[in-house]
Amino acid sequence: MSVERSESSEQRLLQDIVRLLQQILAVVSHPAGPKAQSSTLFFVNSKGEFLMDVTVHINDAPLRAFLAEFLGPNGTGTPVAGIGPTSYTSSDPTVATVDPVTGNLVYLKEGQTTIVGLNAGNQLTNSGILTIISGVAQSSVLQFLAQLAPAPAAAR
Which of 31, 32, 87, 113 could form a disulfide with 92 if both were Cys (CB 3.0 to 4.6 A apart)? Predict the structure, then answer.
C-alpha cells in the first residue's frame, strides 16, 4: 500500500511539474507576457480601494474607472497588464462624464450611467454601473458637549 501511495504522490508531483512548465511556456511564448482572457471594470476611490457597481453622492470626491485584466475567465486568476491603450466612455454623459484616457469621472447630476472600458490591444471590454444621488439630509443628530470651566482669575 505504501508503494501505491508513493507512485500516486509521484504522479501528482509530475502533473504539477507539467502544469508549471506549461505556465512558463505560456509566458515565454508571449513576449509581452501571458494574454488576458477576461476583464473587470472597477471604480477606484482616493484611498485606492476597488469598488464594483457603486452609488455615490453628487458632492462626493469623484472616483476613477479602471479596467483590470485577468488570466482566468470572468475576472479570475492572476491580474495582468493590458497590451494596448484603454479607453473609457459613459453611456449618459449628462449624468457623468469620464476622461477617455485616465478614467477620471465628473459627476453632473442625479441619475445612473454605465461606464465602459475597452482595451484596444486585445478588445477586452467590461462595464460598471455608476449611480449618482443628490438631495438633502433626511435626519440629523444634536450633540451636547460639556464646556470647560473658565480658568480662575489668578491663573489668567
Answer: 113
CA angle 131, 89, 119 (to 5 degrees): 120
pLDDT the model gives residue 105 = 97
pTM over 0.85? The answer is no
CA distance 96 to 149: 51
Give the sheet arrangement for strand 86-90, strand by strand: 54-57, 125-133, 111-119, 86-90
Distance CA 65, CA 88 (A): 8
What is the second-level CATH architecture of the domain 33-133? Answer: Sandwich (2.60)
What's the N-to-C CA distance of the chain in angstroms?
91
Q: What is the pLDDT of residue 3?
A: 45
One-letter amino acid at 22 equals: Q
* Cell, residue 30: 508571449
- Of 41, 37, 36, the C-alpha closest to 117 is 41
* Domain regions of the chain by residue span: 1-31, 33-133
